[in-house]
Amino acid sequence: MSTLTLKDREVGIFFWAEPDALATLRTVKSCGVVSGQLAIDGTVQLTPETTAAWKAAIAAEDFHVFTVFAAYEGESYADIPTVVRTVGFMPADTRAARELRTREVIDFAAALGVKSFGCHVGFIPHDPTHPEYIAVRDLVRRIADYAATFGMTYCLETGQEPADQLLAFFGDVDRSNVKINFDPANMILYGSGEPVAAFELLASQVISVHGKDGDWPDPAQPGSLGTERILGEGSVNIPKFMAALREKGYNGPVCVESGVHGEEQRWQTLSNAVKLLNSLR
């Protein structure tokens, strides 16, 4: 495990960049946190003005950003075939543009003083000799090397591969700054493995965790994704999962992702989830 500061041991929130940086952070803090992970969707223009606004807001609110995540234009999580076709670095026709965008997001994170970048890579072929596997592996190496110039880790999000396959990919990438942001619900939503067992296998590489819950895909609907749930109401078994973190000596951040969408419910749901995780930590 990485050596972490006391501030890294907090419960935080995963949240999306909105146009008003200061207002966004104040809303996030209203849920009872002073830290989190900042997500940048593909439409956000990362101008010098954007960077300056976020840097000033973070300083003004004394807020700690653990990780900056990138999402990309054209991605869709409608179902597994759509994820395969659109998400991360697997679509060959957007790969070059997304590599450039990734570097922009890393530059943005570095300007904010954030030491971790993350994203979904997409469904990597199981065959390490497959041309698409090789192309994505080499791209991940390039991104890791670029992040390393800023002293930054590159976190891969879990869920789209079983834990043993992700671990094998790690070995093949062979970059010491490539780590894992472990999302227990994603393991369930994609039907890729029981989350506690997956965490135990990957624990040595995990530097951040999502607090998220969900139920398994419907076996009567092949290709479907599972359903996100309010934290504590899905199939992850959050108390068991949090106990597994303690047993493995994990002291890093746990950042809530809401399983409820819609502005009216979202922030109350996040606030309740923060209270639940604090009670379990």
SSE inventory with pairings:
Elements: E1 11-16, H1 21-29, E2 35-40, H2 48-60, E3 64-70, H3 80-86, H4 95-112, E4 116-119, H5 131-148, E5 153-157, H6 163-173, E6 178-182, H7 184-189, H8 195-202, E7 206-211, E8 213-215, E9 227-229, H9 238-247, E10 254-256, H10 263-280
Parallel strand pairs: 1-2, 1-10, 2-3, 3-4, 4-5, 5-6, 6-7, 7-10
Antiparallel strand pairs: 8-9
Helix pairs in contact: 4-5, 8-9
Q: Kindly report the spatial arrangement of strands forming the biggest sheet.
A: 1-2-3-4-5-6-7-10
Per DSSP, what share of the residues sits in E-state strands of 2 or more residues?
15-25%
CATH architecture: Alpha-Beta Barrel
Instruction: Report the average pLDDT across residues.
Output: 94
Secondary-structure class: alpha/beta
Q: What general outline do the C-alpha atoms trace?
A: globular
**Which fold name fills CATH's third level, the topology?**
TIM Barrel
Biggest β-sheet description: 8 strands, parallel, barrel
Total E-strand runs: 10
As a percent range, the share of helical residues equals 40-55%
Number of helices: 10
Low-confidence segments, ≥5 residues, pLDDT <50? 1-8
CATH homologous superfamily caption: Divalent-metal-dependent TIM barrel enzymes
CATH class category label: Alpha Beta
Order of helices and strands: EHEHEHHEHEHEHHEEEHEH
- Note the gap between the termini: 18 Å
Keywords: Isomerase
GO molecular function: isomerase activity
Protein name: Sugar phosphate isomerase/epimerase
